[in-house]
Request: fold
Amino acid sequence: MTMAELSSNLLYVAFVAYLIATFVFGGAVRGNKEGSFKSEGRWGKVAFIVTLIGFLSHLGYFITRWAATGHAPLSNMFEFTTAFGMTLVGGFIVLYLLYKTPVLGMIVLPVALLIIAFASMFPSEVSPLIPALQTNWLAIHVSTVVIAEGILAISAGAGLVYLLKVVDMNKKSKQRFWLEAIMYSLVVVMGFVIASSYFSLTGYQADFTYVNKDGNESSITYNMPPLVGMNEYTSLTEGAMEPFFETPAIINASKITTVLWSFFVGTILYWLIRLVARRRIAAIFKPFVKNVSLQLMDEINYRAVIIGFPLFTLGALIFAMIWAQIAWSRFWGWDPKEVWALITWLFYAAYLHLRLGKGWHGEKSAWLGVVGFAIIMFNLVAVNLIIAGLHSYA
Amino acid sequence: MAEDKKAKKTNRKRNRAFMRLAILSMLVLAIGYTIYNSVTADDVEVLKVGDKAPDFALEDMEGNRHKLSDYKGEGVFLNFWGTWCEPCVKEMPAMDRQYKEYEEQGVHILAVNIAQSDFEVQSFADRFDLSFPIAIDRSKSVMTAYNIRPLPTTVLVNPEGDIQRIVTGEMSEQDIKGFMEEIKPQ
Amino acid sequence: MGKMQCKCGHVNPPGTILCESCGRSLTEEEQNKKLADMRYEGTARRSQTYNKSIIDKIWNFFSSVKVGVSIIVILLIAAAIGTILPQAQYVNVPVRNDATIKAYYADVYGEIGKIYHFLGFHDLYSSAWFILLVGMLAISLIVASLDRFVPLYRSLKNQRVLRHPSFMNKQRIYAEGPAPEDSMQKAEEKLKDLKYKVTLDKNGLLAEKGRFSRWGPYVNHIGLIIFLFGVMLRMMPGFYVDETLWIREGETRAIPDAPGYFLENKNFTMETYTGEGEDAKFEEAIDRVGTVAKNYQTDIVLYQTPEESLPGATDELEEVEEHAIRVNQPLKFDGYAVYQMDFRQNELRAMTFDLTNKETEESLGSLTIDLVSPEKSYDLGNDTRVDLLGYYPDFSGFENGEPQTETPIPNNPGFLVRMFTPETPDGEVSFIVIQNTIEPLGENQYKLTFQNAETRDVSGLTIRKDSTLPILGLGGLIFMIGVAQGMYFNHRRFWIQKQEDGGLVLAGHTNKNWYGLKKDLDQVSEFASLPPYIDQQEEIEKQEKLEKEQKLEGDELS
Reply:
């Protein structure tokens, strides 16, 4: 077995371990009928040990991949996102050790699973580093950022648990709508994973030529049936479906197609779940969060921000500026990724001031935690894939 | 006693208001100046009229060394040019005519070519039969010192060694004559 | 608003919530609360107390958290808007000016692009209103910090050990009940063990730890202000150098804005990953994405002229060092840094021609024209020579019969030559450009045929000098110290009082991490047999939950 193979096997092990741990955490919480911490603690401990095994295996993936590629495996979408999944679990482990809350694992681990699955949809072969990335700052800057984001995401996890408990799913309200929207968006990510896995397993490919925004002829390969066509496209693959409509040159219709498929599959999946469970997804979790201490969730939410914010400042702003000064000759250039790091930072600064200065505890704080995670994910996914800039490496 | 207290209070109040005013106005000034700077950032030039003309030493095509400070007390008409620049080509003959007129009156012309080959510069000079000295700034160091961007740029140095005028773009013979008058030693 | 005298006799500044001396609630609102508001120790934020003149009003405006957060949120939204379309600096136009950039937005992004440009969002981050917003944030930082720091500092400095019962029982952590005689001494001992600073007064005890963490927010605000000050300085002329230098292999050039320094470009290299040898592991990735750059490098020699030397005199250059400038490895000297930023490959350097007979295609010899320093005449021997009459590096056409050159760069070199051979001793005139020969004075017997060319690369280097970097670095460092101080440490306090009946009253407070506070208290309680404590916040929550459930049951019954 080569180092690279060992590495990807370790990642599988981690994935399976997290999957098992999710259910054991769920069982620990659900089985705790009388609300005593004892029964929760026993199964919680088992689940935690499984999580720990998964995390060590994940760490093993990271180290062996580092050895295989010769650089910190943080240089493309697959590597960064996989590492984000790892630090998310790492953040959970730290806070579990502090607060012993199985319910947090039940929420965080599925999200970590989704993130790892999302990551594996990107090309995962060992890729070389372009000159700008050939420095130790890659490891220093990106690893600090990814750790900080993992911890900040825990804040969202605790916030989500808080909301699942506190939002009344039987009464129509804005809160109910948005909470369900969060659940729906998680299902859409699953839709993306299912759609891309299906089409890549069946080996779907459709080639097109089109006219790009500079007026030149280019070619593109769709990996999903083309719902939307590129600007002035011509199909090269026989039997491929005819796109429903054409888009202007500035839009990458192949990416739009992927997004549409994800929503399509995700929406079907969402309604399937709702039909089977005969209730909203957020309502399915209600019995799991019955015994949750709101105050504890609020404290975890806040604590995670407190630990994550300084790290985020250090990694995403200070280290980033030092590296940018070395590689690009300027510490700040208003590149979209930089701007979104600043936005994330400003957002958490606002969170802290609202909490300390305006007394935004509890539900408000929980919502803010979730929004913060949404901004982080936007910076990770949308800014890399949609907004072109110096940081787009996927 | 009570009055004393009251006086103290008004005093404190006045101090406080003064402090606040001072801090706020300082900040407003700083921000205003920053905005002013950012809005006018593009217009900033390193070299201005009235500045001391940076000294330099260049060798002309004949091998004579020209040091700007040697011309103290006389006017120097410093023309930066290149063979590819059309307006430069156009104004050269006029410059040559005026040079013959003003050379004796203490106005020197030095045409500084921007890092072209000897061959190109020499054939250009031969073609127009130019009589004023031409030097090649091979490392672009004089160009850098004078912060020259567009060509042609003409820097007029007066007898005091200060920059009298900076002209960018083509000059008519009339202009050239006028400029020569400006820097003619009295 | 007047001064507020507490029942204990202490006179508090107007706006105070909790008496500075004994801790009694001073306002009615506060008295009705179950838990005391411990933010800023219940002191008056200075600004709230005076609201008279216009200066006071402006001051109060910037002092408010609401305003501060609003500015942050507006900045955040503005920053996001700037990423919808690329900023003008990242837009690629052949000729850069306002008109072409405007046209670019309209052409590429259509109506949306036009509006975006019209609103000035293409240059959002250096627009006056964006800078104004950042400036307002700076004012808010300074004013709000001053307003809160001063009273907080005073009140923490003058802490009393003995607090009023109403202060004690409104703390989140609270305990009362009988305790053994030696509890106080033992608690003191244990608290000291746990690194608390303990002060005693009559029948009371105050234990305190980590007070410095309370200054964290002010320290990090100072860091931010220093950083913003650095940014402001940077916008003033002369604080930083940002120049571009295009330098060809073999050239020596003055470094712009670095008087007395020269660079010689020895060699430019661009390498790509081959997918073989030690790059074999990357083969799959290279197959997928095509070529991947491995290295951009300019080998340079840095020279300096002696101090008394003048610009223009380059014969006395002294070598300072040799360096390979690569991405991430700039050349550094004297506060300057030179970066590898760009390159152009394969610019013509020299061209070789054969002088051939047009009919027999027989060659009379070859000549190489060095485009950097062409010669007047090239002698091929045997009464054969080629005279160069004119050289036009970037030939663009004729004007009045005279060949023109567009730029000094050899993009399309044209040569006007006169060819002498034994057969044509008077010479034949020919004009040669790439793949074309013009014979202006009639049909020739001979021609110059292009054989091969030598090329060279051009390195695009960026020269930077930034005198504000130390200020920015200092600001960043202080900020980090501030956040670490404020967030990784917390201010924990316990108040214990012995009652006349021998029982104890205990209250605990921390600005964050209640979990840690409780862990400390658990240890002290066990050691000193203190009465069991309750977390009043949790009690309140339980109470509310109970009420809610009862209400639900009630609803179901009815």
